[in-house]
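My current task is to audit a protein record that another person submitted. I need someone to confirm that the token line plausibly describes how this chain folds. Take the sequence as given and treat only the tokens as open to question. This is what I was given:
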Amino acid sequence: MNIDSTHPFYTGELILPTSTIDVVINKILYWYTYSIPGGVLWSYPRVGKSTAIEYIKINKAKIFNIDVPIFSYIADTKDYKKSPNNFYKSLLNKFNWAEEIDTSHIKGGVTDNENRLVKLFTSRAIDTPEKKLIFIIDEAQYLGINELELLKSLTNKVRANGVKVISVLLGEPELNDKRKWLKQSRKTHLISRFFAQEERVPGLRSRKDIENLLRGYDLFDVKHKGKKCSTSNYFAPKAYREGFRLQNYSKEVWELFTRTSEKYKQPYLDLEISTEIFFIYCMHLFYKINKQDNEELLLTTQFLEEAMTPEVEKLIFDYSQTIVDYN
């Protein structure tokens, strides 16, 4: 049987709750509840911050108990080179303003486009019970001082209209370094607005983290091709009917990642597994499980190790070196 690469697990549409996502949710929920104007969530690359934001956007009504407006923007290396007007245009394009006003391009100067953003933000939140919105900027380490000043002006004007903006900056360790630089430069107005609090978002750090994720594959039903069942059930139906559950192998999988990671990490650093790399490993694992599905399927140590392909191990090595470089 060939693996079904159109399944949400392989296309990336399946997002399971993880310890990484829990940290992001809890922090943003706290900032939202207590109207913290802005905070920073930073991590090493490939931990899964962006995936966590997608999870929050999909499940926001359940998380916040209301359909809170969420705007998200991915900064890039060119943002700091843009003129103020072009930066605002980038935001408008991302938020589909062009579609809303039924035009293929955005005209006007800085003031015009800032006012459009203010109107857009205000209109989405002014009639909600709490009159708040969440503004998320991913890869925020690419924002320069000028962009932060523009965002401060924008959020000030939205606040003047009666809407509180909770700004969330996501990025890599350079973002936390930028906060330190702003403090040294006495840019306290930007720190208080966008860097009021900071939190490092971890990867997977315990067997329990692994077990919870694998349990999600066993229990979380996914709709695909007219069928609704868990990922484990879909790719190993024969074994699943006889009681096969991937979560029962969390100890062995954790030990495998521990052995592999220990070869590359420095002794003074705690073990941490990239969430994204773990997902890639699971893709290889389900491929093998699918090919060998039977009523008596057992995952031996050799079976699990064979899913740890050279490509996956190389990703673990690169991730370990990244952590070393940042420390």
